[in-house]
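Readers of this paper often ask what the protein records in our data store actually look like. Nothing more is needed to write down the fold, since each code stands for a local backbone conformation. Below, we set out a record of this kind in full and without editing:
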Amino acid sequence: MKSYPMDKIRNIALVAPHGVGKTALADAMLHVTGKVGRRGNVDDGSSVFDYLEEEIEKKETISASLAWTEVEGCKINIIDTPGVADFRGDVYASLGVVEGALFVVKADGGYEIASDSLWRLLREHEIPSFIVVNRMNKEHADWQASVESIQEMVGVNAVPVQLPIGDKEGFRGVVDLITMKAYVTEGEKTVEQDIPADLQDAAQAAREALLDPAAEAVDELMEKYLEEMTLTDEELIRGLKTGIESGTFFPVLATAADSEAGVQALLGSVVDLLPSAAARSEVEGLDAAGEEATFACSPDGDPLIYAFKKQYEAQGGDVVWVRVFSGQASSGDNLNTQNGDSERLGQMSAAVGKHKDKMDTVPAGDIAQAAKLKVTGAGITLTGKGTFQLPPIPFPVPTNAEAISPKTAGDEDKMAAGLNKIHEEDPTFNLDHQPHLSQTLLVTQGDMHTAYILDKLKRTAGVEVERSRPRVAFKETLRGKTEVQGRHKKQTGGRGQFGDVHLRIEANERGAGFEFLDEIVGGVVPGKFIPAVEKGCRETLADGLIAGYEMVDVKVALFFGSYHNVDSSEAAFKSAARIALQKAVEEKAGEVRPVILEPIMNVRIVVPKDYMGDVMGDISTRRGAIQGSEAEGPFQIISAQVPEDELYHYATSLRSMTQGTGTFTVEPSHYAEVPGDVQKRLVEEYQASRNKGD
């Protein structure tokens, strides 16, 4: 396969929320350049990019896919990323390996609120970006309204570099404001023409609007522009390209993926205006000592390769997507991971969806797939010698927890192994084993993500899983004080069992834990049995006395008791201690005043200002307390404390309230007493489970 130099490689990601025609646009790119003979179609399952069984069934992108094509002697690597919020981990992974993004909005809807979180992500990563207004041929398409909505949200530095020719069903091409030529689709071909007479004045005015941002990007051009009030085509391109790369200019373009109008012109602009792979002359990371360092990227330099996605394919096994930042990668090369492990590269390929073009050598700047890597997964850096580590992929933190268990007894190990295999492909979920609560939590990006993972587990590992609401780590404690006797006496015909203890039981300071005091005087309880009393207290408190949760922050003093020379034993005194504690809670509840504690979480919520009232109101219904809020651009950051038990499925609720734009993070804060009605419910649930024998 042909090898391309760094300055002839463009690496781009298509980024957009679900429903704007992003994948259709990617398919059209391959067809207009002759990479495929027939344009793929999401609706009939023939898309080059959405080729997974689940994607064909649901008609939506679940996993990123990769393809390449050639335009004007340049190789363009196209990564089509998922638009559904639950599957956006691949967006985060892709942004670290591309030099440009096509941010797609729809002409029959404009810049939607669902676009905000993705646009913010592009800006956080400082990715040079085009804004592509797609679906220009739809019935309700409105170019002017779309541009205005984009500028309202993005700013005045989002400026058209094209004008549409025709509108709605009559959209058939674009006017390129740089070359001042028209590109019209006729059948399956794009033809260059003169600008239609009725658009010439508008095109001239729109071109002049590009001169200011182009001149402002380069001091030399600004001087010329102030003197001559014009720029040549080459100077205009230079200025706009500089502005795009620095993030001060965002060109707006027009396409209709299903008719392919504007697609060829879009690809031409990608070549002319977006940075090449050579623009990344160095990358930042950590050296062998863990200190911040830079690595110079050169076609002839030491190899530096970054793995950003792992994927299992039924036909070929595991493949790892890699970006070669420096040097080159060849099948059979022996490299080192950041952890010091040795890795031998398998067959290297350039992907066009599920089709593979074998590559003997992958040059610097290119993206490829490597087969059968043993220790390399997403986020791993490979080098030829020495150690250099590129930053890990900043995946979104999973927040949607479900308790899971296999439907078939004995499948626990099989379930864990299957989920660990899926996790190698999808690091955006966690598996959290919680022995103290006798549960395993699957923590994902949302309900759709959970359903997808469990369906995949069923298909690949044959394990069916039951889902349930997670048990929260409630705790129990006391607020009062009492004295109680616990007496265990049993005669069975032979040696009996006897233990007798008098305990003073009281609340300890919050956070102080369990404290045991030996206040025996005169040997009424022999010293050899006192550790058994303490052990009996610890075990009983660990099992809980109110609702089956660990009882904490309790002080117990053994101050009196009695024993039998023959029948007393450690086991008998353990039982006596348990009886005393149970009596204290059951018979003297008015004195010890038992209470259940619940974990309170610090919640940080980021939402557009328009949804602030709804979100804060919802927090109140969840027994939450607002701690404060602050503005950050068009977004509001809300800080709150919410009981963990009230955050079940909050990810789904927040997205529903905010049209998919709200995000949140949680971390533990403290424990607090539950309200009386909640305690009553928890006790009743515990009693019901005991009656069932659970």
In short: The mean pLDDT is 94.
